[in-house]
Amino acid sequence: SMEPLLEKVFPSREAFLKVLAELEVPPRAPLETDIILRYSAMDQITIQAETFSSDQISRESIFKGNVQGKIPRENILFTTAKLRMLIGEFNSYERLIGEGGIRVEQWDREVRGDYLNYTRVFDNNSQDMQNPPPVDEILKLEGSVQISAAQGKARSSTLFLDLLNQEAVLEGKSAKGSERVRIEAYPDRLSKGAEGQTTTDPSTSPAREIVVQAARASLENKKRRIILEGAVEMQRMPEDFFLSSGILQLLYDEEQMLTEANARQSVCIEQPGRVARADLARVDELKQTIRLEGNAEVDSGQYNLQGSQINLFLDVNRGVAQGDGNAPIQMTMKMGGEFTPAFRCR
């Protein structure tokens, strides 16, 4: 029984080892003692399960039945049906492999998937180093990954988290339709907090929503940017702003509010009453402008514009355009009738 060790704080490693040796069935080998030491520390992983088995030769342990784990350093809780734990020689790494019913919680976020692989690598060459800091810490989930938080939600086929560098990569099965990564963000919840939604009257102030789809999404929190690649589509509601491109970079501020969007490779923008396309496009949220560069074209009910560079207001009703001095805009005026765009984005 491990009862003498539960819910207790020991002043030193030696005190812990003394009580450990006095157990009714003490650890039978140094490996078992090392495993208990590593997972008893508050800054290390803890695991609970209905059954536990260990192979000292392969340095592998298997947990089954209502497996629950905790990674205090990252404030991560996880559950799974089955978990394998592998310890590298000289404790050079730890690896957890979960199968079935994966659920991971961190702060206000929850992630679900079919498979989990957590790896933590240490820069130590002997067992004498106590609790060495990790030099690499990776969490990977696969199979119908679902992510949810107060600020939004996402789905992907694979989620790769670099916990030390605060970076994440989401990948879809392909660049086709619903097999792409899908991210939904709710800016109002970011600016007001989740509770702020209860005071918003949707009939007078529709909630804002940004939906992005792509084959791959890279989130770099330290750089405050998201890079999307492969059949990228972004839609903003309620203004019904749609953008498609090959690559899209989103920049955000300290409060995680979108400040800028930079798109390239066959960029196409569609708004009520206006369509635009170019090789490159920059949407400035602070200035509320759109800058088109390279084979730029804008079509509306009143005019068709073409040039190497065209600047527009984000608001279609303020559709003032400006070209550069080297290549003026070519304008074709339209006479009456309903708006029939010269091209479409979707």
Automatic annotation (TrEMBL):
Q: Where is the Organic solvent tolerance-like N-terminal domain?
A: 212-314
**Pfam families noted in UniProt:** LptD_N
Q: Residue ranges under compositional bias (Polar residues)?
A: 196-206
| Listed InterPro entries | OstA-like_N (IPR005653)
Region called Disordered, residue ranges: 186-206
Signal peptide span:
none
The name of this protein is Organic solvent tolerance-like N-terminal domain-containing protein
Q: What is the lineage of its organism?
A: unclassified sequences, metagenomes, ecological metagenomes
